[in-house]
Amino acid sequence: xxxxxxxxxxxxxxxxxxxxxxxxxxxxxxxxxxxxxxxxxxxxxxxxxxxxxxxxxxxxxxxxxxxxxxxxxxxxxxxxxxxxxxxxxxxxxxxxxxxxxxxxxxxxxxxxxxxxxxxxxxxxxxxxxxxxxxxxxxxxxxxxxxxxxxxxxxxx
DNA sequence: GCCAACGTTGGC
DNA sequence: GCCAACGTTGGC
Length: 156
Prior knowledge:
alpha+beta
């Protein structure tokens, strides 16, 4: 029985944390912390172990999908929200009733040729992508068709 | 650096 | 519950 596979797109500013940082982690994994938006959080919580993730570089020229990661640990409490000194501290989240969550992802692949936002915009097959229609959402779903189409572009 | 789009906050 | 004000994101 084949289990359901979901696809996602996670955005990050490479100046802060890029795909090379993930690749260079000793374990090649990291916790995807700091999501402080409810819609993005809900998408994080929907991730299952083994789901694949496009690693998108934003606020860089050119913005582009840089590669692939996979979910290796499903949503768990983002304890950074409890630490007042932390950048992502949220006084409204507490251990009894955590508001924010994170997942662990592992490096899979870095594209030789990143798939740029410009390329994505030019493809009619990708016009329904959340990336184009809700560009600020930092954790978003990708359909299986979109995933395959972008993979083809990355291999060209 | 600008600004459009979007989300959150808080007064009423 | 509405909405103005404000803050953030992110492409350009």
